[in-house]
Amino acid sequence: KGALDGGIPHSLRAEVWPVLLGVRKCSNTSVEHEQGKRSRREQYGEFLRRCAELEGWLTKPVKGLANLPSDLASFTEASRIIAADAPRTTFTYGTFARDWESGILSGDDEDELKMEWRLAQRQRLTRILEAYAILDPVIGYTQGMNDLAAVFLRDISNESEAFWCFAKFMG
């Protein structure tokens, strides 16, 4: 009944999203859960390494088109659009927005804290979206995916788990 009245409590969402989306099974033992998490983290790391490799190609002098990676063009296009969309993404809504307003997350210099937090979230969002563009090059990235991924970043502090929930959500 509580979930119907106010949704899943924020404190449980990091555990509920992966189960609802099939990232992990409810019946997993704690050992299986940790093994799965480690495996997903390693796979996500591979996507991030590929992103870094492709970004490196963008700064290299290139001799001929024959040596270019086949996924460079699609990654470059996705990365360009992500770079434009990520700064426009709203992370402060729902519970988190109320926390900012009530000062729960304020420090000595609230504006500086907010700026640092937004920059960190933007960087996490960019990594997730670029990694997804590598995972699914047919879809790559389209506008609006940033807002969907932001929901998982808001609810799941573990970037790898947020990525896999977003990827499962995208289908």
Average of per-residue pLDDT values: 87
Major β-sheet annotation:
none
The best one-word shape is globular
Helix content: 55-70%
Rg from alpha-carbon coordinates: 18 Å
Domain Rab-GAP TBC: 7-171
Pfam family, one: RabGAP-TBC
Protein name: Rab-GAP TBC domain-containing protein
InterPro entries: Rab-GAP-TBC_dom (IPR000195), Rab-GAP_TBC_sf (IPR035969)
Describe, in plain words, how this protein is organized in 3D.
This protein is mainly alpha-helical and 171 residues long. The protein has a single domain, classed as Helicase, Ruva Protein, domain 3, CATH 1.10.8.270. It contains eight helices and no strands. Helix 3 (30-59) packs across helix 8 (159-170) and helix 7 (145-155) crosses helix 8. It starts with a helix and ends with a helix. The model has no long low-confidence stretch (mean pLDDT 87). Pfam families: RabGAP-TBC. It comes from Ostreococcus sp. 'lucimarinus'. InterPro entries: Rab-GAP-TBC_dom (IPR000195), Rab-GAP_TBC_sf (IPR035969). GO terms for molecular function: GTPase activator activity. Residues 7-171 form the Rab-GAP TBC domain.
Architecture blueprint of SSEs:
Elements: H1 2-6, H2 10-20, H3 30-59, H4 72-85, H5 94-102, H6 110-135, H7 145-155, H8 159-170
Which structural traits does this protein have?
171 residues; mainly alpha; Helicase, Ruva Protein, domain 3; 69% helix; 0% strand; globular
How would you sum up this structure in a few lines?
Pfam families: RabGAP-TBC (PF00566). By secondary structure, the protein is mostly helical. About 70% of the residues lie in helices and about 0% in strands.
